[in-house]
Specification:
By secondary structure, the chain is α/β, with parallel strands linked by helices. About 40% of the residues lie in helices and about 10% in strands.
Length: about 260
């Protein structure tokens, strides 16, 4: 993942926010996928939606998932693009590393030196890579029928939506389990006591960046900013969160967004 003092870093110490009165209601994802399948024009998107969405009352232990990470030329989907994608099929108990996928794709936007420093994908690699549009079918097939797992949904969901709109003329919607949002929820700062308020003391913020979150569960450190490695790291983090904080029978709707 691209962290660069970025959106993820900005969110990493922020308090978690629950769905308040003014928040948009959670879609009925199975019903929404039926609508989207009927409305989609591209056959690859039609097939993705036709595979259906997992019901929100499904127990976590029964939910097929896929962890995904993207590396980008920057942080603004309006002007930056995806340069690599990694994904790993998984569920709450098993990570299928042998079925993982990794693509380097050629963006229309120029690579900026600062982003190359982060993700280490070079101009030579980009020149030899296919356009994102060439791998759309494989990507959607790998995501179909599974709940997508990410660490900071604002990156993966927005960049994939914009990339599909640019190539297919229509975007994409899908539910996600966001391990960053879960970590924010699990480590929400406690309400300060009387004396803390009296003396203006605030609890130290807890970092919810991927590496720091993994460290709390005694997970090993991996090389950051490689899409496939970060996807694997996200998959392992979710499994640790589920093992420590949730029951196998927990309904999916309590985690996804």
């Amino acid at each position: 993942m691209l962290h660069l003092g970025d959106l993820k870093k900005a969110a990493s110490a922020a308090p978690a926010r629950s769905r308040g009165r003014g928040a948009e209601p959670m879609p009925d994802w199975p019903a929404r996928f039926v609508e989207l399948a009927a409305a989609a024009r591209d056959t690859r998107l039609q097939a993705f939606y036709a595979a259906g969405a997992v019901a929100g009352d499904s127990a976590l232990k029964d939910v097929p998932m896929v962890a995904i990470d993207v590396e980008t030329t920057g942080l603004d989907p309006a002007r930056d693009e995806i340069v690599s994608i990694g994904l790993v099929p998984m569920d709450a108990a098993c990570i299928r590393s042998s079925a993982s996928r990794y693509w380097v794709v050629r963006p229309h936007a120029e690579l900026r030196p600062e982003s190359v420093t982060i993700h280490a994908i070079t101009h030579a690699q980009i020149e030899a890579a296919p356009d994102f549009g060439a791998i759309v079918g494989e990507l959607l097939a790998a995501l179909a029928g599974r709940v997508v797992v990410v660490h900071c949904r604002e990156i993966e969901r927005r960049f994939l939506d914009v990339a599909l709109k640019a190539r297919l003329g229509e975007g994409i919607e899908f539910p996600v389990i966001d391990t960053m949002a879960l970590e924010a929820r699990l480590h929400r700062a406690p309400h300060p006591g009387f004396f803390a308020r009296l003396f203006g003391k605030k609890p130290a913020p807890v970092s919810i960046r991927l590496a720091d979150s993994r460290e709390r569960y005694k997970l090993p450190r991996y090389r950051a900013h490689h899409a496939l490695t970060d996807a694997l790291a996200t998959a392992e983090l979710l499994q640790a969160q589920v093992a420590h904080r949730f029951a196998p029978e927990t309904p999916l709707r309590e985690l996804w967004c």
